[in-house]
# Entry
Amino acid sequence: KNEVEQSPQNLTAQEGEFITINCSYSVGISALHWLQQHPGGGIVSLFMLSSGKKKHGRLIATINIQEKHSSLHITASHPRDSAVYICGIQGGSEKLVFGKGTKLTVNP
Amino acid sequence: GAGVSQSPRYKVAKRGQDVALRCDPISGHVSLFWYQQALGQGPEFLTYFQNEAQLDKSGLPSDRFFAERPEGSVSTLKIQRTQQEDSAVYLCASSSPLTQGAHNSPLHFGNGTRLTVT
# Structure
């Protein structure tokens, strides 16, 4: 069993829709990261969080440590949000273990 | 430059060739990571340096893979006798602890080196 499970694997939405991507993990962590990877391959770090909720523009990330679960929300989605979103966890060291990613396609 | 720089961007190697992939982290970043990403998969951890010390190499798939960071800045990932299953994107990332003793800080990724072994 992978330490990090993401759902859904693929997600198609219409422009303007509210998007939720989920991440569940099975071990104790010190931090959880959300990354965005565009088709060209470049990866951007969106959030690093260890508790509660963070917001940046239309993106919101939440984490529930007790339930070992995090969600990434996108409000008012736009075609430029189309990308792969990857969840990663850190335990006692800086090493990050990643999920397989969720491919999001937002259609105009 | 301000970001993590990787070279070459693309590499095609014949099976059996040796390759060397370079990573220039953000200046001053203490931690450096190498990840391997197969098509349609998330990045898989290979190895991790703190300054010049290789603290974890548990993800290196075989003894054909070797990484070094001799002066605590630039790192090289070397793959000897490449095989077709080595074809992947190799990602480098760096980070710097926000405060002394902290070991969680945002990662900055390079654009990766796409290796194709024919």
